[in-house]
Design brief:
Helices cover 23% and strands 14% of the residues. The protein is of the alpha/beta class. The radius of gyration is 18 Å and the shape is globular.
Length: 261
């Protein structure tokens, strides 16, 4: 199954009940789904794109680009994924900003940080990260006031789970301990026998229930060699039959393939 949409920002129109949030971003038919915690720790508050705007964003995005998961950054975008001041493209700056004289970004935009707004594909803000087979999203897309509570994570779970199953990527890349623990508990049968030691789990392949899981150590804690380790692992993974699909079309009428995992 393929999702029919050309929208990069929030392609499924998620609208949580909070003033500011960072929605999912990327290829709706992605093979790789990068899962973060929340905007307060993994960024995106400024321009609405997960994993951008942090001191470590440049190293993280560069590793994904080198591994072939993203196509790099758009022109006029700084290494951390934020729109550089020299960019000629104007970004929407508040909930009532107009994009071309008759289109507004207040009803269809996901506000991030209260001042910046991301568009949903119809506005003027550029797409800073060129995605081609990868999707980014958070367990908790709302921008929290401090650390999110357990109840808040529980409330946000419905949005994350719905998006994860809609994307149906082959490989999940949870970033950091919380995302890794959640993915292992909810989407594999390995949680009971896997210690959440991110140094040990970083860039290792784990079999899930229909997914491959490749945990990623929090980029804020990366040390020498961690980026190379991730790049090498992802390149090696892509050289294999990581999709693990079987064509059952031979059991059906017609010549169309029917691929299942």
């Amino acid at each position: 199954m393929q999702n029919v949409t050309d929208q990069t920002r929030n392609p499924f129109g998620m609208r949580p009940d909070c003033r500011s949030f960072v929605p999912g971003y990327g290829d709706a038919n992605a093979e790789f789904h990068v899962v973060g915690d929340h905007p307060g720790v993994h960024g995106g508050v400024e321009n609405g794109v997960p994993f951008t705007g942090e001191p470590w964003s440049a190293a993280f995005l560069s590793a994904l680009s080198e591994a072939g998961l993203i196509g790099g950054l758009a022109d006029g975008v700084s290494p951390d994924g934020t729109v550089a001041p020299s960019s000629e493209t104007a970004a929407a700056t508040d909930g009532d900003a107009t994009t071309d004289g008759d289109a507004t970004t207040d009803g269809d935009a996901a506000t991030t940080g209260g001042d910046a707004a991301t568009t949903d594909g119809r506005g003027a803000e550029p797409e800073p990260v060129r995605t081609k087979c990868t999707y980014f999203s958070y367990l908790h897309m709302c921008v929290p006031d401090g650390e999110p509570t357990a109840a808040s994570y529980d409330d946000m779970e419905r949005f994350f789970d719905a998006e994860l199953r809609a994307i149906a990527a082959h490989v999940l890349l949870p970033v950091g301990a919380r995302a890794t623990e959640h993915v292992l508990e909810q989407y594999t049968a390995r949680a009971w026998k896997t210690e959440i030691d991110m140094d040990a789990l970083h860039a290792e392949e784990l079999l899930g229930s229909g997914w491959l899981v490749v945990p990623v150590k929090d980029p804020a804690e990366w040390e020498a060699g961690d980026a190379d380790r991730l790049v090498d692992a992802l390149r090696e993974l892509q050289s294999t039959d990581f999709r693990r699909e079987s064509d059952l079309g031979r059991f059906m009428a017609g010549r169309e393939p029917y691929l299942v995992r």
